[in-house]
Amino acid sequence: MNLSKKTFVYSAIISGTIVTLMIAYFLLMLPSLYVDHMKKSNFKTIKSIQENYINDGNYKNISSSNPAGTATIKIPATGNAVFISNKLISVKININDKEILKVIEKVRYYAAHREEIKNIDKKDFDFTSNTVIVFKDKLFKDNFPLTFEFLENDYKNIYTETSSKFNVVNDDTVIFESNVSDGSNYYTNYIAISIHKDDTILSVFTAMTPKIGEIRPIIIQSLPMIIATALLLILVSTILFSRKIVLPIEKLVNHAVFMKENSNMEIELMKIEGQDEIAVLGDTLNELYLKLNDNFKELEKKNNYLAEQNKRQEVFLRASSHQLKTPVAAALLLVEGMIDEIGKYKDVKAHLPKVKLQLKSMRKIIDDILNLNNSIEAIYKETININEIIDESLTYHEVQVKLKGLTVNVEKEINFTNINTDRKLIFKIIDNLINNAITYTPKEGNIKITLTQGALTIINYGAFIDSELLPHIFDPFVSSNNENRGHGLGLYIVAYYASLLNYQVEVKNIDAGVEVSVFFTNTKILRG
């Protein structure tokens, strides 16, 4: 259910509840309030009638909701006369019966001694029984106990007809309706006339017409409670409804703050029930978070890649500068020997090609430096003859080998000569291993190079790596502590390029020296 429909449903529920309560109020409470109001109104009416009659002595200025049922009796302090007045008539009644006069005397007594009213015997004022006793066998006799004298007044006809109409009920019955007013109240007189089996039947009924003014005070009196109840209900319903709407929004805000402050890139999706617009917004934010997380991971991956490339370039620069030293040193030795015409170096023509070879080696390294921007994706694998790589590296280091009087033995497996790899990187790996072996092998020592199926092993006899250095042998600037201590980049460069080609490198001490192996099938680098 979308938000507009949900709002409509909540509003309908609130409106229905308010209407139900108001209907229940008008059906259950309003009648009782009306009854209570009419009782109070009638009490005020009789009080007003009594006060006005005392002041005026007549009904000219007195109004009553039921003029026909309202009357005032005046009992003089002495005598046997009683005056009765109402809106319709004013009459003087002379009492000729002793029994009735006794009752009148009791009324005079208790009226003068109101403090004794609480001790009154109600049977003395039972006019029903007294009437039977007084009027029994005396009706229409000369000694009738009462004498009536109608007094003159100018307000006998108090009713004015306001409207009338005939209502035809059926072919045999009509009802005449006449509306009259006494100036304060309205009455409706109904006369029903029917013909039934040639008989004429008449029914008369008189009713007071309700006035809207009678109920208006009740409504005005009830308005504060109605308004308070409606406001309370609306307030509570609005709070509940607003919380129902606001809570998911607060959840969205809190989750957004969490995602903003989250640095570990862990995504915890929101769970919002329903199918309204807020739920759709929550799902959209979840999708946005997932997409941003993927973008962040991709960006982090690229950053790591760039860091790796920067590291590779740094290593490449270090390796290249490290490798440049070898041909530079060899070329200098040859040139100095030829300049000083020392021994065999007098034969310039014989040694100049070697100088040229060292210069080519330097040019090759410089060309590699100029191509530093080559990324891992630029690795070009091809079928390489490992024997040629070994021979090429030994040729570059021929001068150093001869100067130290080293013996290099190369054992090659005939069936294993080719490998699918990047020529530049595999050359750097093998050349650094051979250079390390030459550097750390004692003078007139032996180096053994063995090429077997899937592995290259180089042993430099007479060398040894301290046990505390062996676990860190592939870290940069870590070198054996001896007189031929180098820059500590050889094995670091080997390990790095081996990782790019997914090769495994292993270094360990053996009984006669140090053994370094390169396995062309695994990716993990082992530290022996």
Tell how many strands the DSSP assignment holds. Answer: 15
The CATH homologous superfamily of the largest domain is named Histidine kinase-like ATPase, C-terminal domain
Q: Indicate the CATH topology of the largest domain.
A: Heat Shock Protein 90
Average pLDDT over all residues? 76
Radius of gyration: 64 Å
Short description:
The chain has 528 residues and is α+β, with helices and mostly antiparallel strands.
Write the layout of secondary structure elements.
Elements: H1 3-56, E1 72-74, E2 81-85, E3 90-95, H2 98-112, H3 127-135, E4 146-150, E5 160-168, E6 173-181, E7 186-196, E8 199-208, H4 212-261, H5 277-340, H6 348-370, E9 381-385, H7 386-396, H8 398-404, E10 407-412, E11 418-422, H9 423-440, E12 446-452, E13 455-461, H10 490-500, E14 504-509, E15 513-519
Parallel strand pairs: 10-12
Antiparallel strand pairs: 1-2, 2-3, 3-4, 5-6, 6-7, 7-8, 9-11, 12-13, 13-15, 14-15
